[in-house]
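Page 42, continued from yesterday. The earlier attempt failed because a stray header line got pasted into the input along with the sequence. Redoing it now with the clean sequence only.
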Amino acid sequence: MTKGEILSEIQRVAAANNGAAPGMGMFEQETGVRRHDWQGVHWRSWGDAVREAGLTPNTLQPRIDDEEYLRHYALVTRDLGRMAVKADLQMARQCDSAIPSDNSYHKRFGSYAHLRSRVHAWCSEREEYADVALLLSAAVQASKQIKQVNPRDIPLGFVYLIKHGSRAEYKIGRTLNPIRREGEMRLQLPERVTPIHYIETDDPPGVEAYWHGRFAEKRKEGEWFVLSTDDVRAFKKWKKIS
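This time it went through. C-alpha cells are written below.
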C-alpha cells in the first residue's frame, strides 16, 4: 500500500473509534495492513505513522482485569438480547472504545466457548446479571455436550462480494460453495454477475454480520449495498479469517 492509503486507513479507523488513534494491533485487525507494509518502508515506528495522520499516539494502558473483560461481554450480550459473537464485539467497540478488542479477548481467553463459559459463571454469581446468565445458559450447556474436534475438521465457508451489472451495487453474502452460488445468482439476476472477492472463514455468519453492520448505512434491500471504491478495497484486504 502507498503511504497515503495507509494514512487514510488510520484516519478512518480512528473516526470509527471516537477519534482515538488505533493501536498497531487494532489497526492490523481492522484493515489487514501488516507491520511489514509500513515499518521500514514509510515510518520507523507506529507512533510516527499516527502523528503524520494528524492524531496523538496512545499511551500504554494498565492491564485490564479479567472481570472488566467479562463485564463488557455481559453488557453487550444484554444490549443484544442474545449471545454476543465476534462480529458483535467488533461493532460494539466502534461505539465504545472502552470495550476490549476481539484480539485482546482471544489472547486472554482463547476460544469463544471458554469466554462464554467464564462470563456465564461470573454472571451466575451476581444477581444483577441474572438475565445475562439466562441468555448464555443454553449456549454454555450445548458447548459442554460437543466433543472436542480437530480444528482441521471444521468446515470452512466463504463470505463473498459480488457486483451486479455496471452499477455500484454489490451483494454481501455467505456460502459453502462459491462456484455453485455464482451459478445460482446468474440464473436469478437479469444483468451480469461479477465475483469481486471471497473471504475464507470458519465463522461465515459472524463475518457476514460484521460487513453488513459496517455498511449498514449503504444497504439498499436484503443483502445488497451501494459501495464506493474504498469500501470494496477494504473488503478485498481480507483473505482469510479464522
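Notes: Strands lie at 157-164, 169-175, 193-201, 224-226, 240-241.
Reminder to self: strip header lines before submitting.
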